[in-house]
Amino acid sequence: MVKKTILAICTLFLLNIVAPTLEAKALTFGELPTKQTSKQWSVQVGQAEKGMVLAESKKGEYHTYSLEVDNIGKDVLSAEIYMYRNEPNSTTKFALFGCPPDHPCRKLDTDEQAIALAKQLNDGYPYRFSNFLLAEKATEFEVEIIWTQKGMEGRPLKETFTFTAE
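Structure (tokenized):
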């Protein structure tokens, strides 16, 4: 009887230590907007815009947010912005947007898009993504910016901004 009681107490003690570390975390932003900056970029996640054709959060599946990327450093010649989320128990990252086959966005030249985005950012107009979905099971949201700088045309630069579960 004493052995069973001691075993039960030890088991409960171990469960109290291990259980909190097994708890699944979802990526939620405690306070919006939340921002990260570097010498070159400012990346801000905020409340998603609302509208009839815009997605709304769906409990148990995904949240909606907005993204704003601003060039706060030197002028750039080209810029590309990518957004990813993680998948629990996987090293793979999933892109949050893309261009489906046979869609009109495929007709635009990638280099032309990167140059147009750079001009927009250099002119003081941030890149805005007003409403995107982020799966509740994600614990990490990543914004990757690849750009070329004037005077360093042949050498792309890259910065990654990672927002993690709180």
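Residues 144 and 160 are 4 Å apart (CA to CA). Confidence is low (pLDDT under 50) at residues 18-25.
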